[in-house]
Amino acid sequence: MIIRAVRSYWSAPPCFYSWAGIIPIMASPPFCFLISHRVALPLSWKGQTFFAWRIENKMSVMWNLWHGCHKISEGCRHCYVYRRDSLYDKDSRVVTRTAAFDLPLRRRRNGEYRIPPGTRVYTCFTSDFFLAEADEWRTEAWAMIRRRCDLSFVIPTKRIDRFGVALPADWGNGYAHVTIACTIENQEQLEKRLPIFKALPICQKLLLCEPLLGSLDFHGLLTGDIDEVSVGGESGSDARVCDYDWVLDIRRQCIEQGVSFHFHQTGARLRKEGHIYRIRRDLQYSQARRAGIDYEVFR
Question: Measured between alpha carbons, how far is 248 from 251 in angstroms, rounded to an integer?
Fold first, then answer.
């Protein structure tokens, strides 16, 4: 087993920035492509140009096929979707299928897919893929995902208990190009969601500890089929504190249990050595990278 410091595949946040990487862009769904201030790549649709971003030679896009959600746990309290929708007097509790629903299957005039092969697709970041209101659309969504096996889909969820609803008949032990990211924000949700997550037939399993609201004890349950644990603090003006000691303790447990670890963002308020640092939104990801505590395990 080899362990080395690397950038994780979970290297992109669900947020929107200008070319300079500083000014937030309040882009309305479905046009939720991530923009890197390092390398921005144009994607056009119906005469309009949007941008995807490239890190480590892998392009990534956001695919929000439905919009709207319901708060179900403490991690939802300051949901960024609710914050953004409030600027437009939009009710985030109303779940609607978006105009980008068939985005992975759209083609250019030359017949090529608009989302090129090899792209990482961050899926359903303005809702939850396993939301009950989306049950009627999920079969079709899975069919598109299955068809685009040349892409890499990352699907986060707080509803891992609903994973089996409308699951494809040929799912088996999972699609190799799909990563399911189970979100846990505190010990209570770890105790509820992690046992369910571990028991499910999924090829690529990611634990997303964001927003991290307290210390976590995994009770040795990271061994086996968990591929990575990715940690981030809470963003926004009302963000709760993320303690750096919590982050380091999760890292310690990951290394002891042979699981990859990634610290992908600090959050807006980070406590370190007794001092609370207020970190601007545009610096939260770069500051996490500068900590230099990421590890990847190659089995």
Answer: 5
Distance, CA of 45 to CA of 31 (rounded, Å):
9
**Cβ atoms of 11 and 56 closer than 8 Å:** yes
Compute φ and ψ for 52, nearest 5 degrees: -105, 170
What values do phi and psi take at 7, rounded to 5? -85, 135
Q: Which two tokens stand for residue 51?
A: 């941008």
* Per-residue model confidence (pLDDT) at position 223: 85
Q: Which residues of the chain have pLDDT under 50?
A: 1-57
pLDDT of residue 18: 25
Burial class (CB in 10 A: 0-12, 13-18, 19+), 176: exposed
**Beta pairing class for 48-55 and 58-63:** antiparallel
**How far apart, in Å, are the Cα atoms of 214 and each of 75, 124, 199, 242, 256?**
11, 26, 25, 7, 20
Tracing tokens 């970190």 back to the chain, one arrives at 279
The C-alpha atoms of residue 88 and residue 286 are separated, in whole angstroms, by: 29
Q: By three-state DSSP, how is residue 121 classified?
A: strand
Instruction: Judge whether 229 and 297 are in contact, CB under 8 Å.
Output: no
Domains of the chain, CATH where assigned? 2-298 (3.20.20)
Q: Which two tokens stand for residue 121?
A: 């697709």
What's the pLDDT tens digit per position in 79-118?
999 999 999 999 999 999 999 999 999 999 999 999 999 9
Residue with tokens 């750096």: 244
